[in-house]
Design a protein that fits this description.
about 80 residues, alpha+beta, two-stranded parallel sheet, about 55% helix, flat
Length: about 80
């Protein structure tokens, strides 16, 4: 019997695109089927923890510098290209 994994994702997330590249390689290696389930993460946050939007407004601006750098590091490790 082929095992499967349901993967919930938000297309607007850069991390999602990085994960997709590795996900299918891992699924092949460990022989499981991937069932993709698109969601709108903003709506989930709003329903589960509306305070997350308030907290996001207090994140230091330096994150705007480091977040793209982190994504580029993951991109370099995993291969797909993100166009900024």
């Amino acid at each position: 019997m082929l095992m499967s994994a349901e993967i919930f994702f938000d297309c607007s997330s850069p991390a999602t695109w990085l994960a997709f590249h590795r996900l299918h390689l891992i699924a092949q290696e460990f022989r499981f089927e991937v069932k993709l389930k698109p969601i709108y993460l903003g709506a989930v946050f709003k329903a589960v923890n509306p305070g997350v939007f308030t907290v996001r407004g207090t994140i230091p601006e330096i994150q705007d510098v480091y977040f793209p750098n982190d994504l580029r590091a993951w991109e370099k490790l995993n291969g797909p290209v993100i166009h900024w």
